[in-house]
Specification:
Membrane topology (chain B): Multi-pass membrane protein
Distance between the termini of chain B: 42 Å
CATH architecture of the largest domain in chain A: Up-down Bundle
Radius of gyration of chain A: 36 Å
Largest interface: A-B, 196 and 198 residues
Shape of chain B: elongated
Helix content of chain A: 55-70%
CATH topology of the largest domain in chain A: ABC transporter transmembrane region fold
Keywords (chain B): ATP-binding, Cell inner membrane, Cell membrane, Membrane, Nucleotide-binding, Transmembrane, Transmembrane helix, Transport
CATH architecture of the largest domain in chain B: Up-down Bundle
Strand content of chain A: 5-15%
Oligomer: heterodimer
Organism (chain B): Micromonospora carbonacea
CATH superfamily of the largest domain in chain B: ABC transporter type 1, transmembrane domain
CATH class of the largest domain in chain B: Mainly Alpha
Helix content of chain B: 55-70%
Largest sheet of chain A: 6 strands, mixed
Number of domains of chain A: 2
Domain ABC transporter (chain B): 340-573
CATH superfamily of the largest domain in chain A: ABC transporter type 1, transmembrane domain
Number of strands of chain B: 12
Strand order of the largest sheet of chain A: 6-9-10-3-11-12
Shape of chain A: elongated
Pfam families (chain B): ABC_membrane, ABC_tran
Structural class of chain B: alpha/beta
CATH class of the largest domain in chain A: Mainly Alpha
Distance between the termini of chain A: 80 Å
Number of helices of chain B: 20
C-alpha cells in the first residue's frame, strides 16, 4: 500500500494513555508495520548467515586446505553481504515510512485539536509547549514504532539463534534462552529511574524554550527600554539548572549504555567459554566453536536493539504523554447542553446583566465608563464566558455553539493576524488560495477584479485601502504572523476589514478605531454604517464619531445601562454621557479654559 | 520578509571545533576513557583467537578456563570504562548544549531589532527551540558514538596490521567504495537536510501560531483553514524527508554491501598464505573475526552520519543568527546637551517605497512635541529614527550634536526610551517585568511607578510584586500591559521619551489621566508623543503634523487651530463636527 501523506482523514486518536496512543499509531498502518516486522526479521536473521558462512569458509576452506571450497564460501559471503544490504535498506525504508506515517498523523491530530480548542487554549497552554511538542515529542513518539520492525525481528532472531545453538549443543541454547530475560529483569529498575530523570529534564527544557521564545517575542520592548543583560543573566541561571538536571540524566543513561555493551559481551564470554570447553573435550569441532561464537556475536545486535528499544520506549512514553496531554484538552463550550434552537432569522439580543437590548438590523453604540465592563459585555454577547444573554428570547447558552460562532462575531483588539498574503489574512487561506505561486497565480487569473470586489469593499469600509496600496505587491504581499511590519493603526483597520468581510449576522466591535487618527475615524464611522446596513452591529466605544452614526446609543455605567437614545439625545440630556464621550478632556482636571478657548475659536 | 542567514559548512566546522577546544580537558578525558574501553574490548577476540589456537593444539579445560576468565575480565573492564566515558561524554554534551543555548540567547539579545522584525520571530523561535536542542543532542549523543566507533575501527584495523601487514592492506579493500559513496552522499546531504530542517520549522511555526491565534480561529471559524494550512506544511515535511530518504537509499546499501569485502579478501588471501606457510590458522581466523567485528562500528558510524547531518543543518541555522552584524558599538563621545535635531531625514523599508521624504525637526530639551497625522503617514517610522532603531538613508538624526545611531546602544537606551503600542509581558514576576528597566529600583519605587501610571489593578494582585505574569500565568489585559510599559518608563527615567501611541490601549479618560500624571513625574524631560488622540496634542508645547512622510505644519495648538489648516480640520473632526 503506497504511503499517502498527509492523510485525508487522520482518524480519532486513543488518548487513554501514552502507550495506547502509540498502539493507535500502529493500528492505523497494520500492513506497513507487518511488512516492517517481516523485513526486519529477515534482515536480522540474515545477520547470522555471515558468521555461518565465515565458519564454513574457515572449516571447509582454510582448515581443509581446499582452495575451491574456500572460493565458493567467500563468493557466498560477498553475495550474502549484498543480500543483507538489500534487506537493510528495505527495512530502513519501510521503517521510515512507518515513522513518517506516525509523525504526520500525530501532527495532523494535534493540528485539528489546536484548531478545535478555540479561545480556551491560551489559558491552558503556553505556546512554547506547543513548539516543544511539535518540534520534538512527535518525532520521539514515532521512534517507538521502530520497535515494531527490528524489535519484532530482534525477538525472532533471538529465537533462531537459540535453535541454531540447540543444534550444536543444547546447554548453550539454554544459557542463551534464560540469560536474556534475566538481563531484561535486571535492567528494568534502571530504566524506570531513567524515565523519571528524563521526564524532569524534558519538563525543564520545555520551560527554558518557552523563556527563549518569550525573549524573542519581547525583543522590541527591550529595544525600547533596555535591560537585555538582565534577561541574558536570568536565562543563563535557568540554563545552569537544566544543566544539573542533564548531568543527573547522564549518570543513569551512561550506566544503561555501558550495560548494552557489557551485558552482551559477558554473555558472549560465557557462551564461548562453554563452547571452548566442549571443543577441548572433543564434543564439538573447532569450526562449530567458531560458529557458536559467531551466532552469539550476532545476538549482540538483537539484544542491543532490544535494550536500545527499551530506552526509546521510555523516552517515547514521556513524549507521547505530552502529546496525549495536549490532545485531551477540551474546549470550554461556555454553556450547557444544546436544549434550544437558535432563532431562524435575525433576532433581538439581550444582556440581562446590564439590561442592554440590541434590536435586529440596527447599529447600536454602547459607551461604557469602564472599558472592562464593555469587554465583559462583548464576551457575554459572544458567549465566550458563561452568559445569561438571550437571543430572540432563547438563552444563548442553550444554543448550539457552532451556530453562535457562525452568526455572531466578536471582533476584539487582540484578534490574531496569521501569516499570509494580505488577501489570505482578510479572507482566509482557503478562499484566497494557498501561498503557492501557481495557486495564487491561478486565483489571480480566475478572478482579476471581480473576485476581489468584496475584499476591496471591506478595505474601503475600514478605510484601509491605503494599507494595501502601500504594500509592494498589494493584496499579494506576504505579511508575517501578527503583522508586526504594519503599524498599530494599520493592523486595527486590517482586523476591522477582516471582520466586515466575514459578514456575520451580528457583529460586535470592541473599540474598532482606538488607534486611528480622527479623519480616518470619521471615515470609518460613516462607511461602517453603510457596510452594515440592515444587519445587527454593536459598537463598544466612547468615540463621539462612531456613536454619532449609531441608530441607538446605550450608556453603560457601573454595570447597568443607565440611558438609551440617540447620540445627540444623550449629549443633550445626560451630563454623565457627555463627560464620557466629549473629547474636551476637561473632566480630568482644570484647564477647561483653554479648551473653551479652542471651542470658541472653532 | 528577509530570512535570517544560515552559516556555511566551514563556519559550522570551525564552530564545532571551537566547542571542542573550549572543553579540551573534558574531551581528552572522554577520548582517553573511550580508547581504554575499546582496547579492553579488543582483548576478547584476541583471547578467542588464542582459545582457537590452544584448543586446536590440544590444550585442556584448564587453559580454556583461564582464557575465558580473561575474556570476561576484559568485558567487565570495558563496560566500566565505557560507563565513565559515556558519563563524561554526556556531561560534555550537556555543557556544550548549555553553552550553545546561552550564547544563542545573548546573540538574539544583541540582534538589531530591525533585523528581527524583518525576519519574523517565528524563524527565530524555531531556531531557539528545535535547532539548539538538535545541536545539543548531536553533540551529546553523536560525537561520543562517532568517537567510539572511529576509535574501535582504527584499533581493529591496527590489530589486523599487527597480525600481518599484508592482511591489513587487504582489509582496506572494501573501503574505497565506502569512501566514494560517502563523498557522493555528503555533497548532497547538506542542502537536503537543511531543507528538511526548514520544512520542520515551518510545520512547528504553523502549530505554534495556530495555538497563539486559537481564539481568533474560533471567532472567525478559521479552523478548516488552519487545518488546510498546517496540512500543507505536513506535506512539505514529508517531501523533504523523502528527499533525504532517497539519498540514504543509495548510500546505505552501497556501504552495507561493502562490509563483506574486507572479510572476503582476508579469507581468500589468508588461504593462500596458509598454504605457503606465511601465516598460522589462528592469525587468519583472528584477522577475519576482527574484520567481522568492524562491521558493527562501521554500521554505527553510518547510522550516525545521518543524525550528524541533521545536527550540522541545525548548527548552521543556530550559527546563522550570529552572522547578523550585532548593533554597532558606540563610535561617538557623549552628546553635548539634549537637543534633538533631524535634518533632511529620508527613510524607506523597501527599495522604491520611501516612507519619509526629508524630515526637518528640532526639539529643544524639556520640550513636549506631539506628532499627529493620518495613519500610515510615517509617524512610527519617525519615532524609530529618533530612537536610533533605524538609521535614515539620507540626512541626520542627532542628540546633542551626536548621531543617535553612533551612540553606544546601552547609552542610547539610557538617554532615549521608546515605548510603542507593542506590549509584551515577560514570563516572570511583576518585579521582573519592571526591574529590567531599572535594576536598582526599590520595591517602593516600583509601587510608586505603578501608581503614577494609574495601574489600579496592582491592588488586586494576590502576591503584589511577586505575582507571576505572562504565558500560562496571570494574563494582563492590553491596557494593563500598556500601563506596565509606562511604569517601566517612569523607572528608567530617561532624558528623552518617545511615546508612540503609548496610551492608545487605555480608555480615553484613563489615558488622559495617565498622561498628565506622567507629565508631572517626567517634568523637564524631552517628550515626543505620537498620538491620534488630539488632547495629547492639545497639552503639548508644539504640534507637528506629519502627512505622507512630510511635516506639513508645526506650531502650538492654538496657533495651528487658528491657522485653519490640516491640524484645525483634524481637531474639528475629532470632536465629531
Amino acid at each position: 500500500m503506497p504511503l499517502r501523506i498527509p492523510h485525508p482523514e487522520p482518524g480519532v486518536p486513543d488518548t487513554s494513555g501514552p502507550l495506547r496512543y502509540v498502539w493507535w499509531l500502529i493500528r492505523r498502518q497494520p500492513w506497513r508495520v507487518l511488512r516492517g516486522s517481516v523485513i526486519g526479521t529477515l534482515w536480522m536473521v540474515g545477520l547470522s548467515v555471515r558468521p555461518y558462512l565465515v565458519s564454513r569458509a574457515i572449516d571447509d576452506g582454510l582448515r581443509a586446505r581446499d582452495g575451491r571450497a574456500l572460493l565458493w564460501w567467500v563468493a557466498a559471503i560477498v553475495a550474502a553481504g549484498s543480500g543483507l544490504a538489500w534487506a537493510g535498506i528495505m527495512r530502513h525504508r519501510t521503517m521510515t515510512f512507518v515513522r513518517e506515517d506516525a509523525s504526520a498523523r500525530s501532527a495532523e491530530v494535534l493540528l485539528r485539536r489546536l484548531c478545535g480548542l478555540g479561545a480556551v487554549l491560551p489559558r491552558r497552554l503556553a505556546a512554547g509547549d506547543v513548539a516543544t511538542v511539535g518540534g520534538y515529542d512527535i518525532v520521539r513518539t514515532s521512534h517507538v514504532l521502530t520497535l515494531s520492525g527490528p524489535g519484532v525481528g530482534a525477538v525472532i532472531a533471538y529465537g533462531v539463534v537459540a535453535v541454531l545453538l540447540w543444534s550444536v549443543a543444547p546447554p548453550l541454547a539454554a544459557l542463551v534462552l534464560l540469560g536474556v530475560p534475566a538481563i531484561a529483569v535486571a535492567v528494568g529498575p534502571l530504566l524506570r529511574r531513567l524515565e523519571r530523570a528524563e521526564s524532569t529534564y524534558r519538563q525543564q527544557q520545555g520551560e527554558l524554550t518557552t523563556r527563549a521564545d518569550d525573549i524573542v517575542a519581547g525583543l522590541r520592548v527591550l529595544a525600547g527600554v533596555g535591560g537585555r543583560h538582565l534577561f541574558a543573566r536570568r536565562y543563563a541561571a535557568r540554563s545552569r539548572a537544566l544543566l544539573d538536571e542533564g548531568y543527573r540524566v547522564g549518570a543513569v543513561a551512561s550506566w544503561i549504555n555501558a550495560l548494552t555493551i557489557a551485558v552482551p559481551g559477558l554473555f558472549l564470554a560465557a557462551v564461548v567459554w562453554l563452547a571452548a570447553r566442549m571443543a577441548a573435550d572433543g564434543e564439538i569441532t573447532i569450526g562449530q566453536m567458531v560458529a557458536v561464537y559467531g551466532y552469539t556475536a550476532v545476538l549482540v545486535v538483537p539484544v542491543w536493539f532490544l535494550l536500545e528499544g527499551g530506552y526509546q520506549l521510555i523516552q517515547g512514553r514521556v513524549a507521547a504523554r505530552r502529546i496525549v496531554g495536549l490532545l485531551r484538552l477540551t474546549p470550554d463550550r461556555a454553556g450547557g447542553p444544546v436544549t434550544a434552537t437558535a432563532p431562524k432569522h435575525p433576532a433581538e439580543l439581550c444582556d440581562p446583566t446590564t439590561g442592554l437590548v440590541v434590536p435586529p438590523g440596527r447599529l447600536v453604540g454602547v459607551a461604557a465608563d469602564d472599558p472592562a465592563e464593555a469587554v465583559a459585555l462583548a464576551e457575554r454577547l459572544g458567549r465566550y464566558v458563561a452568559s445569561d444573554a438571550t437571543w430572540g428570547g432563547v438563552p444563548l447558552a442553550a444554543v448550539d455553539l457552532d451556530e453562535v460562532r457562525a452568526r455572531i462575531l466578536v471582533a476584539d483588539h487582540d484578534a490574531y493576524l496569521f501569516a499570509g498574503t494580505l488577501r489570505q489574512i482578510l479572507r482566509g487561506r482557503a478562499a484566497a488560495g494557498e501561498a503557492d505561486p501557481e495557486a495564487t497565480g491561478a486565483a489571480r487569473a480566475a478572478g482579476d477584479g471581480d473576485d476581489d470586489a468584496d475584499v476591496r469593499a471591506a478595505l474601503h469600509a475600514a478605510s484601509a485601502q491605503d494599507v494595501a496600496d502601500a504594500l509592494p505587491n498589494g493584496l499579494d504581499t506576504p505579511i508575517g504572523a501578527r503583522a508586526r511590519t504594519l503599524s498599530g493603526g494599520q493592523r486595527q483597520r486590517v482586523r476591522l476589514a477582516r471582520a466586515l468581510l466575514a459578514e456575520p449576522e451580528v457583529l460586535i466591535l470592541v473599540d474598532p478605531t482606538s488607534a486611528v487618527d480622527s479623519h480616518t475615524e470619521a471615515r470609518i464611522a460613516r462607511r461602517l454604517r453603510d457596510a452594515r446596513a440592515g444587519r445587527t452591529t454593536v459598537v463598544l466605544a466612547t468615540s463621539p464619531l462612531l456613536l454619532g452614526h449609531a441608530d441607538v446609543v446605550a450608556h453603560l455605567n457601573a454595570g447597568r445601562i443607565v440611558a438609551t437614545g440617540t447620540h445627540a439625545d444623550l449629549l443633550d440630556r445626560h451630563p454623565g454621557y457627555r463627560a464620557l464621550v466629549s473629547r474636551t478632556g476637561g473632566s480630568a482636571d482644570g484647564d477647561d479654559e483653554s479648551v473653551e478657548a479652542g471651542r470658541a475659536r472653532r | 520578509m528577509t530570512k535570517l542567514p544560515v552559516a556555511d559548512r566551514s563556519a559550522v566546522r570551525g564552530a564545532a571545533l571551537d566547542l571542542v577546544a573550549r572543553d579540551r580537558r573534558a574531551v581528552a578525558v572522554v577520548l582517553a576513557l573511550h580508547a581504554a574501553a575499546t582496547i579492553a574490548g579488543l582483548g576478547g577476540p584476541w583471547l578467542l583467537g588464542r582459545i582457537v589456537d590452544e584448543v586446536s593444539a590440544g590444550a585442556g579445560a584448564a587453559a580454556v578456563d583461564r582464557l575465558a576468565l580473561g575474556i570476561a575480565a576484559c568485558v567487565l573492564v570495558q563496560g566500566l570504562l565505557s560507563r565513565y566515558a559515556q558519563y563524561a561524554g554526556h556531561r560534555f554534551g550537556e555543557r556544550t548544549m548549555a553553552r550553545l543555548r546561552e550564547e544563542f540567547v545573548s546573540r538574539i539579545l544583541a540582534l538589531p531589532v530591525s533585523v528581527v522584525e524583518r525576519a519574523g520571530t517565528g524563524d527565530l523561535a524555531t531556531r531557539s527551540s528545535v535547532d539548539v536542542t538538535t545541536v545539543g543532542t548531536t553533540m551529546r549523543d553523536v560525537v561520543p558514538t562517532v568517537v567510539i566507533a572511529g576509535m574501535h575501527l582504527i584499533l581493529l584495523f591496527a590489530a589486523v596490521f599487527l597480525l600481518d601487514p599484508l592482511l591489513g592492506f587487504l582489509a582496506l579493500a572494501g573501503l574505497p567504495s565506502i569512501w566514494a559513496v560517502t563523498r557522493w552522499y555528503l555533497r548532497r546531504a547538506g542542502p537536503a537536510y537543511l531543507a528538511e530542517g526548514a520544512a520542520t520549522a515551518e510545520l512547528t511555526e504553523a502549530l505554534t501560531t495556530t495555538a497563539e491565534g486559537a481564539r481568533t480561529i474560533e471567532a472567525l471559524r478559521l479552523g478548516a483553514d488552519r487545518v488546510a494550512y498546517g496540512t500543507r506544511r505536513i506535506a512539505g515535511v514529508w517531501a523533504a524527508r523523502r528527499a533525504t530518504l532517497a539519498l540514504r537509499s543509495v548510500f546505505y546499501p552501497v556501504v552495507e554491501a561493502s562490509y563483506a569485502l574486507p572479510v572476503a579478501a582476508v579469507l581468500l588471501v589468508g588461504g593462500v598464505f596458509l598454504s605457503r606457510g606465511m601465516a598460522t590458522l589462528g592469525e587468519v581466523v583472528a584477522a577475519a573475526l576482527y574484520l567481522q567485528q568492524a562491521i558493527d562500528p562501521m554500521d554505527r558510524l553510518l547510522l550516525w552520519i545521518e543524525q550528524a547531518q541533521r545536527g550540522i543543518a541545525s548548527f548552521a541555522r543556530v550559527l546563522g543568527v550570529g552572522l547578523v552584524p550585532p548593533e554597532p558599538r558606540g563610535r561617538a563621545d557623549a552628546p553635548h546637551g539634549r537637543r534633538l535635531v533631524v535634518r533632511g531625514a529620508r527613510f524607506s523599508y523597501a527599495e522604491g517605497h520611501e516612507v519619509l521624504h526629508g524630515i526637518d525637526l528640532t526639539v529643544e530639551p524639556g520640550q513636549r512635541l506631539a506628532v499627529v497625522g493620518p495613519s500610515g503617514a510615517g509617524k512610527s517610522t519617525l519615532a524609530r529614527l529618533l530612537a536610533g532603531i533605524d538609521a535614515p538613508q539620507a540626512g541626520v538624526v542627532s542628540l546633542g550634536g551626536v548621531r543617535v545611531t553612533d551612540l553606544d546602544p546601552a547609552e542610547r537606551r539610557r538617554r532615549i526610551a521608546l515605548v510603542t503600542q507593542e506590549h509584551h509581558v515577560f514570563i516572570g514576576s511583576l518585579r521582573d517585568n519592571l526591574a529590567f528597566a531599572a535594576p536598582e529600583a526599590t520595591d517602593e519605587r516600583m509601587r510608586g511607578a505603578l501608581a503614577t501610571v494609574g495601574a489600579d489593578w496592582y491592588a488586586d494582585l494576590p502576591d503584589g510584586l511577586d505575582t507571576q505574569l505572562g504565558d500560562g500565568a496571570r494574563g494582563l489585559a492590553a491596557a494593563e500591559a500598556q500601563q506596565l510599559a509606562l511604569a517601566r518608563l517612569v523607572l528608567a527615567d530617561p532624558d528623552t521619551l518617545i511615546l508612540d501611541e503609548a496610551t492608545a490601549a487605555l480608555d480615553p479618560t484613563t489615558a488622559r489621566r495617565t498622561e498628565r500624571a506622567l507629565a508631572a513625574v517626567l517634568a523637564g524631560r524631552t517628550v515626543i508623543a505620537i498620538a491620534h488622540r488630539l488632547n495629547t496634542a492639545h497639552d503639548a508645547d508644539r504640534v507637528a503634523v506629519l502627512e505622507d512622510g512630510r511635516i506639513t505644519e508645526i506650531g502650538g495648538h492654538d496657533e495651528l487651530v487658528a491657522a485653519g489648516g490640516v491640524y484645525a480640520s483634524l481637531w474639528r473632526s475629532w470632536h465629531g463636527s
